[in-house]
UniProtKB/TrEMBL annotation:
It holds the Pfam family 7tm_4. It is found in: Cell membrane; Membrane. Residues 44-295 form the G-protein coupled receptors family 1 profile domain. SUPFAM superfamilies: Family A G protein-coupled receptor-like. The chain crosses the membrane at residues 28-51, 63-89, 95-117, 138-160, 199-219, 240-263, 275-297. Signal peptide: none annotated. This is Olfactory receptor. It is a multi-pass membrane protein. InterPro entries: GPCR_Rhodpsn, GPCR_Rhodpsn_7TM, Olfact_rcpt, OR51/52/56-like. Gene3D superfamilies: Rhodopsin 7-helix transmembrane proteins (1.20.1070.10). Coiled coil: none annotated. GO terms for molecular function: G protein-coupled receptor activity; olfactory receptor activity. Odorant receptor.
Length: 315
């Protein structure tokens, strides 16, 4: 029996999330704009999903990828915002060990999925603008389904081993997480064993996902720009630019905040911890809030369908 106990990982029954260390008094008020942003994200993305599902004319690759982006944003924001608001408003920071790993899994998996969907949307625009006559045959419904499934599967397969490694580690008696959600490295810091494998694997996942997706996005939009500048029709040129600007407005906040969070976590030791955590929170909350607004306002076909939907409901 003693030998069995010696091989069983020592894990705390729960962790204590602090919220935003250094801003304990202010976080009560910070929760209000966070709550408003979350409400906008939930409402906006649900509207996008309803409109795309009910309008058969929107059953095209661009809008199907947008529907997947909306679903991803809903899961991503819901996996961390309700608990975060409970911490900010009621000081309810305790979270079970398994619940913490589940939150970690969903946050990091769907962050990777969001990156993959943005990459898929860039590919869709590439084929739509550079090969318009072959666009529907290249990105047929089976291809869109397969690409979406691969993006989701990639996120699950890359993040799951990290959670499995954490589950097999011995944790110290110190169970306080200086964060507002169960972020991977914040949890790793509580492990009593050697965590080099966890740290290296975390860097590998972030590097592999980000570098691959950004490379595809940059190559796609560089090619699109070169093709668009050769177009003779002003109307076609304006339409292509308008579509690409919407995508770029979505891509930039996601990757800029992700890059800042990563570099700050690895090298920004002089930056106050509360700044790092605030940016990490906004990194997961701003894109789900902005995405439905950007696409709902800038995409005419989608905007018109949303107006029709509200007219039917008598709003």
């Amino acid at each position: 029996m003693s030998s069995l106990n010696s091989t069983t990982p020592s894990q705390p029954p729960s962790f204590l999330l602090l919220g935003i260390p250094g801003l304990e008094k202010e976080q009560f008020w910070i929760a209000f704009p966070f709550c408003i942003m979350y409400a906008i994200a939930v409402l906006g993305n649900i509207i996008l999903l309803i409109v795309i599902k009910t309008e058969s004319s929107l059953h095209e690759p661009m809008y199907l990828f947008l529907a997947m982006l909306a679903f991803t944003d809903l899961v991503l924001s819901t996996s961390m915002l309700p608990k975060m608001l409970a911490i900010f408003w009621w000081g309810s920071g305790e979270i079970g060990f398994v619940s913490c790993l589940v939150q970690l899994f969903f946050v990091h998996t769907f962050t990777a999925v969001e990156s993959g969907v943005l990459m898929a949307m860039a590919l869709d625009r590439y084929f739509a603008i550079c090969y318009p006559l072959r666009h529907s045959s290249i990105l047929s419904m089976p291809v869109v389904t397969a690409l979406s499934s691969l993006v989701l599967l990639r996120g699950v397969l890359l993040v799951a081993p990290g959670c499995f490694l954490l589950h097999r580690k011995d944790f110290c008696q110190h169970r306080v997480i200086s964060h507002s959600y169960c972020e991977h490295m914040a949890v790793v810091k509580l492990v009593c064993e050697d965590t080099r494998v966890n740290a290296i694997y975390g860097i590998f996942v972030a590097f592999a996902v980000t570098v691959f997706d950004i490379s595809v996005i940059v190559v796609s939009y560089t090619t699109i720009l070169r093709t668009v500048l050769r177009l003779s029709s002003c109307n076609t040129l304006h339409k292509a630019f308008n579509t690409c600007v919407s995508h770029i407005c979505v891509i930039l906040p996601f990757y800029v905040s992700a890059l800042f969070t990563y570099l700050n976590h690895r090298f920004g030791h002089s930056i106050p911890q509360h700044i790092h955590i605030l940016v990490a929170n906004l990194y997961l909350l701003v894109p789900p809030t902005l995405n439905p607004i950007i696409y709902g306002v800038r995409t005419k076909q989608l905007r018109d369908k949303i107006v029709v939907l509200f007219q039917r409901k008598g709003i």
